[in-house]
Design brief:
Helix 3 crosses helix 5. This protein starts with a helix and ends in a 6-residue tail after the last helix. It has 177 residues and is mainly alpha-helical. The chain folds into two domains: 30 residues; 141 residues. It is 76% helix and 0% strand.
């Protein structure tokens, strides 16, 4: 039998989703007019109506200026068309880069949040392992002697992980680490 979304999702997950959506809406509301303009232009240029407009404009321009056309030719060598297309390409690529820069900033922000959540989760799991190990000791339960358990009990130092990752990247494949 089908469930509605509120029955399926845990309340904390629902709260987190709503918080993320509200944050995105707030960020959209606080954009300046220049960002809104760049977004609108980028959104339109990435759409099929933009392609259709260009097909009609460029197709009409070319047909108008064909040698056999009964209309008076104003761009026989298509120099004006080429110049207009080049200038348009410059501006469109600029708007796309503006949007990509903003998307990259948002991606960096999300990556930072993911790192923080992962570190918090790792810290909590480490604490739980220590707690369960102490409980097992008090209850007289023997552990399996897994060497990984001792490793998992230690806190991860993010700066040490990054240093090691950099070292491994710098050493190259097949070199001693």
């Amino acid at each position: 039998m089908p469930h509605d979304d509120h029955e399926v999702l845990a309340p904390i997950l629902d709260r987190n989703i709503r918080a993320l959506v509200e944050r995105r809406r707030t960020a959209d509301r606080t954009k300046g007019w220049q960002e809104r303009l760049a977004d609108a232009i980028t959104r339109f240029t990435g759409s099929l109506p933009f392609v259709y407009v260009h097909l009609a404009l460029f197709g009409g321009w070319i047909l108008w200026n064909l040698p056999g056309s009964p209309l008076p030719r104003f761009d026989a060598q298509y120099v004006i068309l080429a110049m207009a297309a080049s200038v348009e390409a410059i501006f469109l690529s600029t708007f796309i880069l503006i949007s990509q820069n903003r998307m990259q900033a948002l991606a960096d922000e999300r990556a930072d949040l993911n790192v923080q959540v992962s570190l918090l989760s790792e810290h909590e799991v480490t604490r739980l392992i220590r707690l369960v190990k102490r409980m097992a000791e008090r209850m007289g339960v023997e552990e399996s002697g897994s060497p990984e358990l001792d490793e998992l009990e230690r806190d991860v130092r993010p700066e040490k992980v990054l240093e090691h990752l950099q070292h491994v990247n710098d050493s190259g494949p097949g070199e001693p680490r």
